[in-house]
Amino acid sequence: MTRRFVLPLTEEEQRDLTEAHQYGEKRALRRRAHAILLSEQGYTIDQISDILDVRRNTISIWFKKWEASGLGDLIDKPRSGRVPILDEDDRERLQALVQDHPHQIRTLQARLQEETGKTFSSDTLRRALKKIGIASSAFDTH
After folding, report:
1. Distance (Å, whole) CA 88 – CA 51
2. 68-118 pLDDT, tens per residue?
3. DSSP, res 8
4. How far is CA 25 from the centre of its chain?
5. How would DSSP label each residue in 73-142?
6. SS3 26
7. Neighbouring residues of 132: CB distance < 8 A, sequence distance ≥ 6
8. Would you list the domain boundaries of the chain?
């Protein structure tokens, strides 16, 4: 008899896990679902650990979460991040400045810093440009 580390899966669970493994939005979910499916197929924790290149303890945690709450507990919960330096109003002003100073990223940065009173890096400016749909590669970086 094959030793399993998770309880036998129902057809519905197998279908849900297969879908999560193949089409899950995040890589972490796809890997966790894959681990559960591999366990169902009879792979040991050590083998799964080698296949997925994660520690044994991590695999065990995934199994415990699966058994406690099913697929929902394998999905990462939203986490807070840093508050953006440039808010929506700043990005709108940036968009207007781009029309006045196309291809001049340093001028844009200086003008926006002067108007907003905020200090930020050129990388932050590039991210803001990307967010408003303007490729920063169009700007002269010299």
Report:
1. 44
2. 999 999 998 888 888 889 998 998 899 888 888 888 888 889 999 999 999
3. P
4. 9
5. GGSPPP---PPPSS-HHHHHHHHHHHHHSTTBHHHHHHHHHHHH-----HHHHHHHHHHTT--GGGSB--
6. coil
7. 91, 94, 95
8. 11-74, 88-138
